[in-house]
Amino acid sequence: MTRLATDPLMLMVPAHHQLASRSRIEITRLRNEVFISGTADDPNRVALASACARAGFTPQVAFETADYAATASMVRHGFAVAVVPRLAWPAGTHGVARLSLRGRTAASWRGTSRWHSEPAEPGPDHRATPPPDPVLASSALKAACKTEPE
After folding, report:
1. Is 150 inside a domain boundary?
2. Alpha helices by DSSP H, the chain
3. How many CB atoms lie within 10 A of CB 1?
4. Count of domains forming the chain
5. What is the C-alpha end-to-end distance of the chain, expressed in Å?
6. Is 58 within a domain?
7. How would you label 100-114 residue by residue, b for 16+ Cβ within 10 Å and e otherwise?
8. Band (69; pLDDT cuts 50, 70, 90)
9. In a domain, 32, yes or no
10. What is the pLDDT of residues 2-55, one digit of tens each?
11. What distance in Å separates the CA atoms of residue 135 and residue 147, rounded to the nearest whole number?
12. From the CB of residue 134, how many other CB atoms can be counted at a distance below 10 Å?
């Protein structure tokens, strides 16, 4: 297994939100927030749920989407807050603020991939499988949370 990336999750809040002026926040402070996230099996949602569980609560997810631009639009209009991987932060996100999550419960997203040079069972094509393109390998990526030092 090869680690492709470790990317911290960032909190996205509307520009008018009470937390918008901050640059960092403990995830424990988000206990009463309503979230936008992916579906229950989405890696970002799994990372959010895991980080919140370590902080002692279950996130209240009211809206589900895997589209980060749609997420930013809903956050900008005040529907909820969201946790988004830093590298997936949508371009042109006006009207929202980005905060780092800190503390022992901070979440990050880890992308991993496996590459096999031979098929499990020889088929009609015995050529080696090329390494996956990191952009196209998203289906091979899975989320995990890790403890971040303060």
Report:
1. no
2. 43-54, 68-76
3. 8
4. 1
5. 28
6. yes
7. ebbbebbbbbbbbbe
8. very high
9. yes
10. 666 677 889 999 999 999 999 999 999 999 999 999 999 888 899 899 989 999
11. 26
12. 13
**Residue that wins the pLDDT comparison between 78 and 89:** 78
Percent share of the chain, pLDDT over 70: 65
Burial pattern 14-52, b for ≥16 Cβ within 10 A else e, equals beebeeeeeeebebeebeebebbbbeeeebbbbbbbbbb
CA atoms within 13 A on the CB side of 42: 17
**Which pLDDT score is estimated for 135?**
40
The alpha-carbon radius of gyration of the chain (Å, integer) is: 17
> Is 147 among the domain residues?
no
pTM of the predicted model, to two decimals? 0.68
Range of the domain at 74: 2-120+128-140
Amino acid type, 149: P
Instruction: Collect all residues with Cβ–Cβ distance below 8 Å to 91 and sequence separation of at least 6.
Output: none
Q: Read off the pLDDT of residues 8-21 as tens digits, 9 standing for 90 and up.
A: 889 999 999 999 99
Q: What is the mean pLDDT of the chain?
A: 76
* CATH number of the domain enclosing 66: 3.40.190.290
Length reported for the chain: 150
